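Question:
Write out your own:
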Amino acid sequence: MLMLESPSHRSTPRPGDDRMTLPRARGEVPAEELLGRRAFALAPWIAVSLTAFGLMLSDLIRTWGGPIDRFVVGTSLAMGVVTAVLAACQDLPIGRRYRRSLWVYVLGSAVVLVFLASLAVHDDGVASVFYVAACPLAAYFGFVFPYDLRYFTLGGLVGATVLVQVLNAHTALFDAAIITTLVYAAWGCGTLVSVGHARIAKISRRLSSYDRLTGSLNRRGFMEQFERAVAPGDSRDESIALLLVDLIGFSAVNADGHEAGDELLGWIGGRLPSLLPDRAELGRLGDDEFGVLLPGVTRDGAEEVARAIRMELHGRISAAIGVATSQTRDIDAPDLFRVADAALAVARTAPLGVHALVAGTVARGRTAARPSGVMPGPPALTYAQIRATGRVPRVVERGEMDNRVVTLSLLLVAAAGVPVIVRGMLGHDTNVYDEIVRYGGVFWVMGFLLIAAVVRGRAIPERSRLGLFVVTSSSILMAIGVGVAALAGGGLTAPIIAAVFLKVLFDAAVSPYDRAWISLGIMGTGWVVVAVLGPTSALWVVPLHLALLGGSYALGTIGQRAMRQTASHAKHRPLVDDLTQLPNRVGFRRWAEEAFYVSATTTGTPFGVLSFRLNGLHRFNATHGHAAGDQLLIDIAALLVQRLPEAHVIGRTGATEFTAAVAMSKARDAIWLTDEIRAAILDVLGVTVGYGTCPEDGATLEALWRVAEERVFNGRQGGHGPQFPSALAAGRATAAH
């Protein structure tokens, strides 16, 4: 009997990743979990610490040879030490405990904002070089903080800016308007990035609830809808019915090749919708099992739908349908599923193939086969939405949603340049750069509008020439415009220089790493030009600016990694089997092809495919219930991962089929591996094993897989793979309860 600790082995290594893990929410990783990771928790504290120490060093250089400004140096030193200690404590128990709390970062950000505002009031007001750090802080607010805190943080930023201007009115109103506009633009850019990635995650969640083969909900999506519909409560005052449809003889169809089985499933997915009421939910629960949820349908109505489904399928395949209905509010999802499971067991031997039971009249003998990890919150997708959109949720390509983010951000930056142009037009000429701002500012704004027009409505793949054009052209235009405006307003001490840090952070948050480096290089070059051509009296601020450049790039990069991991996890979920957490058939093919390519072209290691077909699982489920069968599959998946630790990828590629891509060079190696696995599983279920080795059996993954499945079929035809012993099966069923 298999008695394994399966949770630690439910994922399998794949090319390019250490271990496949899934987020705890439906495609979105909450801010608390992101910040709970060491890398994401360290970044903001280190950035603030470096900025504080850079500010202290800059002020010491400014007062070199004279009395130091004790307030600036003291507060900067205190802030730098405190944030450095907080960063160092991330690996201590207290740090690991509190770094998941979003309110720790909210409070810390508020303290940093008060720190910057105090220094600005002490210095020259809003236009102080000390206050330019508020721009990357504003972008961080919009990018990381959840939606319900964004407007609160924006109010705090704008309120702090206005308060500084009121307390220290030395700053000209136009300069105050410039820095206020930049703070708002920074917050807006950060928010746009967050919204864009959230849309990607939302569409990925929809795809994770959708079965591409049948055009219906998959097991995860159906169970989410089912549990919400059957949730007990006073609001549910109507009857509800659940149908479990089991295809009889589907394994024989697959024996002729999975293409025949896939065609049949696609046909079923196209035919069943016309038989269902408008509010019905249809889902594919397994390779050969479907679920139908019928809210507001009585027992007679449910039986009528079941008979119509069986009649529709009769021309191509037989089906057994279990019907469970309930008219009471105290029946929960496990009870209704258990009753439908019991009705299905009777229907398999019933002459008409349909059997109906009423929830509350069946003794509690088995547990419903519920998938693990059904998530709370609003449903990601309903079958009605699938039908309304043609049952084909749109797949978002990498970078596609970024065009909206980039377009709106370009427009926002163009709008932020308007106060600078107005200031140049209304101000007095002090140097030649004022003339350039006055007459060239309009063309600068028009340049950003032109880039936005080019991007609008077009996908921006990460490695495309369009993406390179957008990053390079916008960076050059920004560097020229900011550089000229800064030289017209005091060089490195001009408040407009804050736009440099904003641009670096934004590009690091939305662009691939090589593109972000291009942006950093261009903006850094523009900053160097300002330092060289500007007044030498402004060079004291160089340490602060270097710290802000590094901190802005680090915050943008960390934020991009966080959102990429969120979207990546969500996109991987449709490739993973809900029950065993191994790759499904689509996922296995994808990652096995990657492994085969690497083996054939790079490492030259041997490659083979092992296929395992379980015998008697349907009878096991009919006798002991799906809960026992599901637990058995989980244990077998864990066993395969445990016994094949060096496998490239292991997947559950069918209801009773597992497939592994392993390093083996000849039939003798394959026989040794298959005999070991068969010996481990035979005490519970019968198993037939096939193999294909490269190059003896083929030179492609598909050829090896086909040969392995043919050997499985021949083995089953020859009577190999004894059925499971009834005593051990009963023990497995007891253990599952």
